[in-house]
Amino acid sequence: MTEPSNSKVIVEAEGIVKVLGSAPNEIKVLKGIDLQLQTGELTLMMGPSGSGKTTLLSILGCILSPTEGKLTIAGMKTQNMSKEQLANLRRKHVGFVFQSYNLVPTLSAVENVMLALDLRDINGAGAYDQAAEALEAVGLGHRISAMPSKMSGGEKQRVSIARALAGSPSVILADEPTAALDAKNGMAVMELLAQVAQDTRRAVLAVTHDHRTLQYADRIITIDDGRIAGSERPKISGNAVAVAAH
Predict the structure, then answer these.
(1) What are the domain boundaries of the chain?
(2) 183-200 and 125-137 helices cross at what angle (nearest 10)?
(3) Beta bridge partners of 183
(4) Could you give the count of Cα atoms lying within 13 Å of 32 in the half-sphere of its Cβ?
(5) What is the DSSP secondary-structure string of 147-204?
(6) 113 neighbors 134 (Cβ within 8 angstroms)
(7) How far is residue 108's CA from residue 112's CA, in Å, rounded to a whole number?
(8) Angle between helices 125-137 and 109-119 (to 10 degrees)
(9) What is the 3-state composition of the chain as percent helix, strand, coil, each rounded to the nearest 5?
(10) Beta-carbon count within 10 A of 231 CB
(11) What is the pLDDT of residues 47-81, one digit of tens each?
(12) Who's near 86: CB < 8 A, 6+ residues apart?
């Protein structure tokens, strides 16, 4: 299928294999994954527990290194990078959203976002302005001084998304971002991720088990037994229901 002309590949994984443990007890978790993430798109990754989704997400985020295969992020090939170089790449080009929010309870919303900017060597007045702008983008411009203890689950996840967005990373990776939320807030968060992808031209990849969120996906990837078992573009094909049934 022809890709949108205004999108470009920002993350490319080729032949990704990941083996955990050592012989004779080694386990091949990923078995040759080929995947591209494009700017301006929300990709949802689904699959049964133990299929390799979290391991793949960790490799795409430069937390784990593949046993075999190539990974390119924002034009940079990672296979020969040192740990320090990978850490720098991760800080500058990858934003993470976690299901448990991972907010510092003693910091306000804007301070939590500024903490992520500090890791990207952005601080001072510029950091405050960028953090406030990121919170405004996720609908929390009126809550920049709120403490996590005074926020709802949906608001905490919005702060987490703002934190991932601040500093203009190339890709945002979200691990079960709706898992800790009720249905209404879960749908709102996934809709927000789709909006972030479209409005900021970021590539967004989210792992999910929630079939109700498929309507927001530009692409749906199914992982099974360490391999990509399916890839659909429901917004183009109208096939979200079929993918959900799969």
Answers:
(1) 40-50+88-245
(2) 120
(3) none
(4) 1
(5) -GGGS-HHHHHHHHHHHHHTT--SEEEEESTTTTS-HHHHHHHHHHHHHHHHHH--EE
(6) yes
(7) 6
(8) 120
(9) 40, 25, 35
(10) 15
(11) 999 999 999 999 999 999 999 999 999 999 999 99
(12) 62, 65, 78
93-118 residue pLDDT tens = 999 998 889 999 999 999 999 998 99
Sheet arrangement for strand 171-175? 94-98, 171-175, 203-207, 42-46, 219-224, 227-232
- Residue 22, Cα to own-chain centre: how many angstroms? 29
Phi, psi of 98 (to 5 degrees): -110, 150
| Euclidean distance between the first and the last CA atom of the chain, given in angstroms as a whole number | 20
Quickly tell me which residue has 């078992």 as its tokens.
229
pLDDT over 90 percentage in the chain: 77
- Side-chain-side CA neighbours of 80 within 13 Å: the count stands at 2
Length of the chain: 246
CATH fold of 40-50+88-245, please? Rossmann fold (3.40.50)
pLDDT digits (tens, 9 = 90+) for 125-155: 889 999 999 999 999 999 999 999 999 999 9
Per the prediction, the chain carries an average pLDDT of: 90
CA geometry: angle at 193 spanning 125 and 240, to 5°?
170
For residue 17, report the phi and psi dihedrals to the nearest 5 degrees: -120, 135
